[in-house]
Amino acid sequence: MKIVTAKNLSKSFGQQNVLDEISFSIETGEIIGLVGRNGCGKTTLMKMILGLSSPTSGLLHVKENLKIGFLLDCKLFEYLTAMENIKVFSKYSEELKGKDIETIAKELLEFVGLDSNIKKPVKSFSFGMKQRLGLALSLLEQPEFLVLDEPFVGLDVVGIKKFMDYIEKIRNNFGTTILISSHQLSEIEEICDRFMIIKNKRMIQSDEIREEKVLFTIEKLTNLKTKRLSGLHFYNAQTVMINNQSSEINEFFTKAVENNLRIKKISFLKDANDIFE
């Protein structure tokens, strides 16, 4: 079942276009990676999904009454303990009113491996421990959908491995759908069912690059000519991306001749890692 659907979604800040007509969907129970270089629009997209920012154009549909938890640059009360932080944040939740918060907090802190640090002030925590407390806070209302923005930034190899284990436990224990962003594909590749890559304001799905791709960069590609190339996938505003198969290449060359296109450059994508070169 689809819980998030986007079609031709764009976002601009003034004259700066950040995301350009991206389309995707998220299914129940998936762990999905959102990958791209710093500043490519990952956080902007997550904020739109969370309702913290509005699209400039296009469609974005989130399942009605979907319970969402998120970890976006979590700010903690440094002089309070882990337990006290959870109690403070729980006061802002209508769903948790009247519930035994202390028991819920103990269970969450045990789940993220902080049960032996319940009474310690957060200022004494390592960065990795603070990230795990942020994860516990994101699980307070038992969300169906969890959004994690760059959770591995600042963590060492051991910290990343621990956090990845918690992500898998959350999906396996609770059936939670998880969207996790990173600027490094290698960090999240092994735990994700699939990934979506943002580059040049566009989105590329992982299943689109299972086969080797050919990139044709076209000289002076106008909007009118782009419309005449309907059905082809654009890697960026000037580049068409197609499978490295003779039938598809022949189809592209036919359209190129019909529309008097001049090919400036031909290159290849062998796998997802080539996108970041």
Written description of the protein model:
With 277 residues, the chain is an alpha/beta fold. It folds into 2 domains: 2-206, P-loop containing nucleotide triphosphate hydrolases (Rossmann fold, 3-Layer(aba) Sandwich), CATH 3.40.50; 209-275. The chain contains 8 helices and 13 strands. It has helices at residues 42-49, 82-90, 101-111, 127-138, 157-174, 185-188, 223-228, 246-258; strands spanning 2-13, 16-27, 31-35, 57-62, 68-71, 145-148, 177-182, 194-199, 202-205, 213-218, 233-236, 239-243, 263-269. Strands 5-6-7-3-8-9 form a 6-stranded mixed sheet, sandwiched between helices. A hairpin with a 2-residue loop joins strand 11 and strand 12. Helix 2 (82-90) crosses helix 3 (101-111). The radius of gyration is 22 Å and the shape is elongated. The relative contact order is 0.15. The model has no long low-confidence stretch (mean pLDDT 85).
Instruction: Look at the helices and sheets and give the structural class.
Output: alpha/beta
Q: Which radius of gyration do the C-alpha atoms yield? A: 22 Å
Overall pLDDT level: 85
CATH architecture of the largest domain: 3-Layer(aba) Sandwich
Q: Could you tell me the strand content as a percent range?
A: 25-35%
State the CATH class of the largest domain: Alpha Beta
GO molecular function, one term: ATP hydrolysis activity
Keywords: ATP-binding, Nucleotide-binding, Transport
Domain ABC transporter: 4-225
Pfam family, one: ABC_tran
